[in-house]
């Protein structure tokens, strides 16, 4: 039997859901550890709230199709997992590695939502797509926020390090 567009869409919904669950884990872990970078902490807290909404949108779309999120597929998150592992090893430059990884992660999510919306469109699932367009906008805004924070964060890291203060997180 031929694969239907609906199946491709369901798989994309599950993958994106797994991605958001990973996003929540990563951001919550960082927020707990951050001490000396209040702007990054604020950006992460805001985006954690948004991400809960994004997760709910995906769950609603799956439920509407009579499906539910499944366990994280190994392989799909391999790349992201490796990238995020950068920030998991305690290092003097932990904040820098997390900043690079957050930038990469948000851009990964942008690609995932653009793709999900395209697949949903091909599957004739117009109703859920308004919500996913909003999720996409939120990812773009967060990617931009992280990008804007690269320079001030790095400057603060250098200043704290030179002053002999805690700079890693
Ligand atoms: Fe995100």
TrEMBL record:
This is Protein YciE. Coiled coil: none annotated. The lineage of its organism: Bacteria, Pseudomonadati, Pseudomonadota, Alphaproteobacteria, Hyphomicrobiales. It holds the Pfam family DUF892. The gene is yciE_2. Gene3D superfamilies: 1.20.1260.10. It comes from the Bacteria.
């Amino acid at each position: 039997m031929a694969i239907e567009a609906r199946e491709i869409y369901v798989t994309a919904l599950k993958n994106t859901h797994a991605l958001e669950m990973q996003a929540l884990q990563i951001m919550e872990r960082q927020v707990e550890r951050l001490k000396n970078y209040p702007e990054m902490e604020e950006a992460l807290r805001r985006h954690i709230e948004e991400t809960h909404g994004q997760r709910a949108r995906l769950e609603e779309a799956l439920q509407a199709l009579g499906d539910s999120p499944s366990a994280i597929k190994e392989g799909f998150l391999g790349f992201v997992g490796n990238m995020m592992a950068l920030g998991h090893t305690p290092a003097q430059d932990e904040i820098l590695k997390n900043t690079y990884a957050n930038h990469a992660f948000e851009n990964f999510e942008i690609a995932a939502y653009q793709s999900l919306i395209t697949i949903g469109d091909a599957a004739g699932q117009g109703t859920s797509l308004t919500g996913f367009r909003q999720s996409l906008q939120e990812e773009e805004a967060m990617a931009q926020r992280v990008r804007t924070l690269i320079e001030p964060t790095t400057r603060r890291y250098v200043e704290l390090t030179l002053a002999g203060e805690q700079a890693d997180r």
